[in-house]
Design a protein that fits this description.
The complex is a heterodimer of chains A (about 240) and B (about 350). Chain A is an alpha/beta fold and about 240 residues long. Chain A is built from ten helices and ten strands. Chain A has two domains: about 160 residues, Rossmann fold (3-Layer(aba) Sandwich); about 70 residues, no CATH class. Chain A starts with a strand and ends in a 5-residue tail after the last helix. With about 350 residues, chain B is mainly alpha-helical. Classes of the chains: A alpha/beta (about 240), B mainly alpha (about 350).
Chain lengths: ~240, ~350
Amino acid sequence: MSQMLSMTDVTVCYDNVEAVRNVSLSVDEGQIVTVIGPNGAGKTTLLMAAIGLLASRGSMVFRGNDIRKMSVEDRVERRLCLVPEKRELFSDMSVADNLLLGSYSLRDRSGVQRTLDEVYDRFPRLRERQRQAAGTLSGGERQMLALGRALMAKPALLMLDEPSLGLAPLIVREIFRTIASLRDLGVSILLVEQNARAALETADYGYVLETGEVVQSGPAKDLIHDPRLITAYLGGH
Amino acid sequence: MTSDIAAILAIDGIATGAVYALVAIGTVLIFTVTRVIFIPFGDIAAFTALTLAALDAKRFPGTGALVVVLACLATLIEIISLIRSGDIRLLPRALLFYLAIPLAVVGIAWLTMRMDPPLAVRLVLALMLITPIAPLLDRIVFRPIADGTVLLLLTVSVALHFALVGLGLLFFGPEGVRTEPLTSFSTEFAGVLISGQTMLIVIAALAFSGLLYLFFDFTLVGKSLRATAVNRTGSRLMGIRPARAGTIAYLLGSLMAGVSGILIAPVNTVFYDSGFLIGLKAFVGAIVGGMTSYPGAAIGAVGVGILESFASFQSSALKDVIVFSLLIPILIWRSLASLHSEEEIEE
């Protein structure tokens, strides 16, 4: 299994404050890797640095290319995609236009319609609402649109920031089912999530981030039974 | 005031407003995509009129030299920027877009001019010469400070306007120009004489607004510009480059300002510094639309044109005072309206 993303000793600063310190992690092809941790641990910052929205120190290699100094747009063209916590949808534009713009970075546009049909098949609700403005969708539908839009770019590695945030439990289950099914399509996933149990149940490998540093890592099936994690994050006693 | 005079003033106002509408739509386009309130848009319109007048007089316009100087400057800045970021592979592309194409445009205009071209060709040449100016200014002036505040960008935009006025005086001289009418056709409607030029202005404004609508709604590039305007971070995450979107917006905006300059030149005497008032009145129209709505900006600009027409009938000396006084109630109304919408957006 080849390595999709490798981050080594990555440090990210806001002004002079180190929000992420010497973090090393890797995602293999076809793997779901999750980063869990409390609020303010630096999870979102790590993803922002990985996509290039924040400057970082250390090494960042994606599919064999050093991407640390690349622009966000160059990373997206290399099929590294992020669904951010705030979704960042084009609220005034229709669902169909949002999805179409997801494919903007693709040079070969011959398969765009087929990918769009696949996204609609995966999220039939989006097909029903394709003419509706994205800003009028419910929270769950917005998350589906954000995921669908990212899939339109045919990502090799999809980074998801808190996909379950603010969603009803039923929708959360649907979103995690979708994430798990993406692995079958060959999409690698880096999942940042506060819902640690759902994340570890879906992922192959996990990292625990606390105050900007990786404090623990291992196969997800081991972490889910770790007594310290059960006490701290999984609601156990 | 009789109803006949009111009708004449209204038609005159609609025609002037249509010209402002083109500039206002361009202003909104640039602002939403780049956050720059591009004050020199009026100057671009005035320069187009002056360029056309120079071409009519069989003189090669100063615009050509301006484009060459700006192209060299922009290329130099781009090369330095690429060397600093280590993106040398993008050098040929930079040379093509910032140097070869603008120089080719000037070269084509210079060669074509020697063949004593007809009016239609001169119109195209004037637009060709004017269109690269704003994108080149964007590269030289605004892109290095693209992440600055709106206030900083506005301040630089005002400074750029004054610089362009100075360059206008240098390249075109202090004399005003009025180009020949594009048509001598006229017709009578409900007892009021309407000139073909007036009709042409309104038709051109409607046609360009329609084309812009089609561009935004039916092309991927148009949608990418709208996306950049709606959500800059979101569009970057789709691989849409804000700098490229900005260049396209400046190109389109310049084209619209250029068309408005061509339309206004036969009905108004245009001087090197006439652009400021055109731009400012279009800006008032754009503010009616909250600087974000194209139909709002167009309606606002037509309203400004009509108000100006009636104001100049009542008191020619105070017409600008009356038009700009309109800003005060509009800003109060907009500030109250935006307070409401912010409350509504909160989830």
